[in-house]
Amino acid sequence: MSSLDDFKKKIEEFRKDMKDGCENVLKKYEKSLEEFKKADLNVSKDKLIDLYLDVKRLRINFKHELQNLYADFRETIHDFRRSLRELAHALPKEYAERVNEIRSMLAEAAEDLEEYLHSSRDLEASFKEFESRIKGFLITETPPQAPSVFVKIDTLTEALEDALKEVFSSTEKIISKATEVVSSIRIPESDAKLIKLLVDAGIFRSRNEALAYFAHKGIEASRDWLNRVQERLHKIRELQEEARKELEEIFKEDSDQKKNE
Q1: How many Å apart are CA 220 and CA 225, to the nearest integer?
Q2: 88-127: per-residue pLDDT in tens?
Q3: Whose CB has fewer CB within 10 Å in the chain, the N or C terminal residue?
Q4: Other Cβ atoms within 10 Å of 7 Cβ, number
Q5: How far is it, in rounded angstroms, from Cα 138 to Cα 142?
Q6: Is residue 251 a contact partner of residue 138, using CB atoms and an 8 Å limit?
Q7: Which residues contact 112 (CB under 8 A, 6 or more apart)?
Q8: What is the DSSP code (8-state) at residue 181?
Q9: What share of the chain is helix, strand, coil (3-state, %, to 5)?
Q10: Residue 186: helix, strand or coil by DSSP?
């Protein structure tokens, strides 16, 4: 049946896109990490600090990008499953075997996605291992008071990860809501009917204009949450700058003491 053939083809294309998307992200960050690992660690402390922060920043970006990709692909698999249930309900029973075949394809796609998630965790562990190595080089020849600064650096990283986690969690809740009408974006059918009514009444010139208006209203309604995230990110930047200045001051004092000796 052509509808099942088309459905199967879409899933095959999706699996290829998922494979390409996940592998490209993994390869990109694996390559970046390998480039970092080639760096000479027997350099000035300032350069080591820059490297230490750059690697941490890269790890956070990697984690965030993979999480977004994972959420998008997982939502697509969910949509496929829902559409398959609707299609199977309308088909005669003799097509059950082919429906089960497609259902198995979706199960395999979900398993593939989980494998990519495990691979991303392995790569994240490699990032952390290299961060620890750089940190070891810094602490070895650092004055006793400096380790407290690393606590600050680790704190700012955790704060940034928490902020990203909050953003990701909220986004995931939004995209996981059930939807029935597909336009340029997915919206509930009741909302689509209301927007059409407003356009027909001449209040908006088009559905795009109406959606843009309500998207803006949604942002305004979430202003308190957005402000909290913005404040948290601002504090992270302040903490990062404070940690850097404190490290520079410690190393400067240590250098001056050695000169006086």
Answers
A1: 10
A2: 888 888 888 888 898 899 999 999 999 998 999 999 999 9
A3: C
A4: 20
A5: 6
A6: no
A7: 15, 18, 19
A8: E
A9: 85, 0, 15
A10: strand
The C-alpha atoms of residue 50 and residue 251 are separated, in whole angstroms, by 14
Residue 129: both structure tokens together: 């291992």
Q: Which CATH architecture has domain 1-141?
A: Orthogonal Bundle (1.10)
Between CA 186 and CA 203 the distance in angstroms is 22
The packing angle between helices 45-90 and 96-140, to 10°, is 170
- Which H/E stretch holds residue 38? none
58 contacts 127 by C-beta, under 8 angstroms: yes
Domain ranges of the chain: 1-141, 143-261
Give the residue ranges of DSSP H helices in the chain: 2-37, 45-90, 96-140, 147-175, 189-200, 207-221, 223-260
pLDDT in tens, 149-170: 455 555 555 555 555 455 444 4
Look up residue 4 and give its two tokens: 């099942």
Distance CA 100, CA 27 (A): 34
